Amino acid sequence: MRPVVIGLSAAFCASASASATASVKVRLESTCDAEMYVYLRYRNKKDEWRNAGWYTMEPYESFYINSDGPVLSNNLIFYVYADTKDGRGFFSRTRENDDHILKMRNSKAYLPALRLVGQPYDDYINVSVGCE
Question: How many whole angstroms separate alpha carbon 67 and alpha carbon 122?
């Protein structure tokens, strides 16, 4: 199976809604014991796919993501690339069914990414990333 390229027009991707109408903040959580560098793709409150990153996360840190203002979404699907200095990153290396390619904003570079389903809470969606 070939990887899916996640680009500027990713309307073909399936959507999972946190709420039928409300958009909430997106919280990024590290479950890794090392500093991580994170880049992700999300669907905003206008139902448009957007990129956000780079974020540097300290071990076990969590925060609400911000990309030119608070990131709001009612979609639980995220595409995430995260890596550590020593290469224990959080992206698909071998699982063909999970392989996605994330095109970086304002760049010709591509990153391998994992499709994640965020955990919905009343006022935010939690997206956990870890390391090997």
Answer: 22
| Cα 127 to Cα 77: distance, rounded to the nearest angstrom | 9
CATH architecture of 4-122: Sandwich (2.60)
pLDDT per residue rounded down to tens, the chain (132 residues): 333 333 333 333 344 544 445 899 999 999 999 999 999 999 998 899 998 989 999 999 999 999 888 999 999 999 998 999 998 887 655 545 445 777 767 777 778 888 889 999 999 999 999 888
Domain boundaries, the chain: 4-122
Strands 24-30 and 72-73: antiparallel
Coil, helix or strand at residue 16: coil
Q: What is the pTM of this model?
A: 0.75
> Which token pair is 85?
């200095």
Q: Spell out the residues 6+ positions from residue 4 whose beta carbon is closer than 8 angstroms to its own.
A: 99, 100, 101
